[in-house]
Give the backbone structure.
Amino acid sequence: MRILLSPSETKSVGGAGAPLDLAALSLPSLTDTRQKVADALVSVCTEDSVQAQQALGLSDALADEVTLDAQLWTSPTAPALTRYTGVLYDALDQASFTKATRARAESRLWIGSALFGLVAAGDPIPHYRLSAGTKLPGLGTLRATWREALTGAVAPWSDEVVLDLRSGGYHQLGPVPGAVTVDVVTEYPDGSRKVVSHFSKHHKGLLARTLANSRAELADLGAVVRVARRAGHVIERTSDTVLTMVTEP
């Protein structure tokens, strides 16, 4: 099973790993596209910090992110699972993983990225700032840049259960045919339901934690639903490619 997560705008800084080596990342067919995007990002951040700040949509308070992006090739790396922070990753709580659960998590968890397309949880990456909706000078939209390469890279996963928890922008960078998505809704006492927006990240993080840590094989969607329900999640199988996660108000 593979579980695809959204990245986060917030990321840890620093790390103990050697500088970025694209050849060390999973899905090597993406190396050329990763190189192209990374070069475009470093170029604008090195040559014109004002243009870079505008392109990245950064406020003056976050202007230092431009400097960090300019240092992309020389800054230290850390495993992707520890690099990303924020609501989803707080719920995932990777710091509490045991050696065994971390090994399972690293074999199942993948994280979408505007810079790298998709990385495995254990892939060594530096701090960076780049979101799916950014248009870098000389490169065009990231959706157009990534879509063909990324969809092709994950084509071999067609026989596996893929749970795609990425948000819309990262899903559009490279849809995975046949992947299962999860809708998060709140059910009220009168039986009405409302789609959860911001806190969807929290609930998806909890679900990802349950599935990533499970010792079950998770070879089919039925097994995914059973494991999630045993852990206390209210999950409905809406279709063969959609699950609905029901939460309380």
Q: What stands out?
A: The longest strand covers residues 180-187. DSSP finds ten helices and twelve strands in the chain. Residues 2-247 form one domain. The CA atoms of residues 235 and 245 lie 5 Å apart.
